[in-house]
């Protein structure tokens, strides 16, 4: 369950990355994804569970990211 103090206003831009705690459940993540698509149609965002810095280069490339 998301606690009220964990909620922050998002000013999303196309291509943004949203990092959620690694223990976030699939259903909660899906609900967030659906809500974001409804609130921000046409904007592409990537939701990452856990530490985004732990992704290796092949994982980033598979997600459409390219390290510069």
Descriptive account of the structure:
There is one protein chain. With 68 residues, this protein is an alpha+beta fold. The protein is 29% helix and 12% strand. The chain has helices at residues 26-39, 57-62, and strands spanning 17-20, 46-49. A two-stranded parallel ribbon has the order 1-2. The N and C termini lie far apart (37 Å). The model has no long low-confidence stretch (mean pLDDT 83).
Radius of gyration: 13 Å
Question: What class would the helix/strand composition place it in?
Answer: alpha+beta
Total beta strand runs: 2
Helix content: 25-40%
Spell out the key features of this protein.
68 residues; alpha+beta; two-stranded parallel ribbon; 2 helices; 12% strand
Topology at a glance:
Elements: E1 17-20, H1 26-39, E2 46-49, H2 57-62
Parallel strand pairs: 1-2
Short description:
With 68 residues, the protein is α+β, with helices and mostly antiparallel strands.
